[in-house]
Here is the input.
Amino acid sequence: MPKKFKRVHLVVMDSAGIGYAPDAGEFFNHETPDIGANTIGHISEKVGLNVPNFQKIGLGNITELKTVAPTDKPLGYTTKLQEVSQGKDTMTGHWEIMGLDITNPFPVYPDGFPEELLTKIEAFSGRKIIREANKPYSGTEVIKDFGERQLETGELIIYTSADPVLQIAANEALIPLDELYKICEYVRKITDVGSEWMLGRIIARPFVGTKADNFERTANRRDYALAPFGRTVMNNLDDAGFPVISVGKIHDIYDGQGINKDMGHNLNDMDGVDRMLKAIALPDFKEGLLFVNLVDMDAKYGHRRNPEGYRDAIQDFDGRLPEIMATMDEDDILMITADHGNDPTFTGTDHTREYIPLVTFSKAFTAPKPLPVGHFADISATIAENFGVAKGDIGESFLDALV
Here is the structure.
């Protein structure tokens, strides 16, 4: 291994868990505990998974997968990682990856938001809220179901998901962006740290169209996120002068903290890979961290319990791996992981409490092998040691094991 890796490319395949965690019985999809969930495993078993590039790196060496065989000479180090924090949502998983221990879980609202909160939003905005939409909902389905009603009545469409988020969908022809953003800023204020309804993100979801069959969400989405509850390894890298580049919703998840260049939101996962490749090619990115989130697996297929779509999304990413690997320098390292599970074959529509995979690749590796089972924050502890900065609150580096 070189003295250190010059660049770390960290990719989160959002929700791609790899088997239920030991404490899965404490986490539920409605009334069903998450015991038995296995996002990648069940996709492989039930609809097949053809990922030759992941297989070469060693995905099949992490655990038994029906259609992804282990290999005697993997190209990368692999393992699975367990979550310490009390949650199974996007922010908790990502924050722990960067070294934070979230002991108090964010509240989620599987039955919709409380009436008191809705009443406050109505009083501030001067608009009524469609109560029937107040529940976990697909963002495209909720505007299909209630978008025409909003155009008729001017009511707000407020809904949630399995994450600790409150989303407001508004037709741009009826509710101007400035008005929508102002409402979201107010909701952020009353759901901030210390409030009884503390939420991770408030999301403005503008859309256009006149009928249910032609409503379309626009690129004017805006996220109002909580800042992490402590300093992450990204803060330490930024303070030390290293580039910290984000792709996709990474900037939103950390409220921009510790990030000094953002490549923007992804239109889809393949666009996210395109943005990742552009970041790798940046002339001033000679060392530092590139942090990427690919969200389609979670948002489009996990919550909607669509194993075929999820399989295709993983396979599409697998098809881009040779392109990513070819752009890497000799002293780069690629780390691919997840932030929680979302088994598309499981009951309910919620995330699932699972181990996450860790698949690594570097042209500098000489004899890769499986690593011991670890924890989410081991990723950032390894990154911190590599760049000579302080690690987060938790996590143990595995840098010395990479040869």
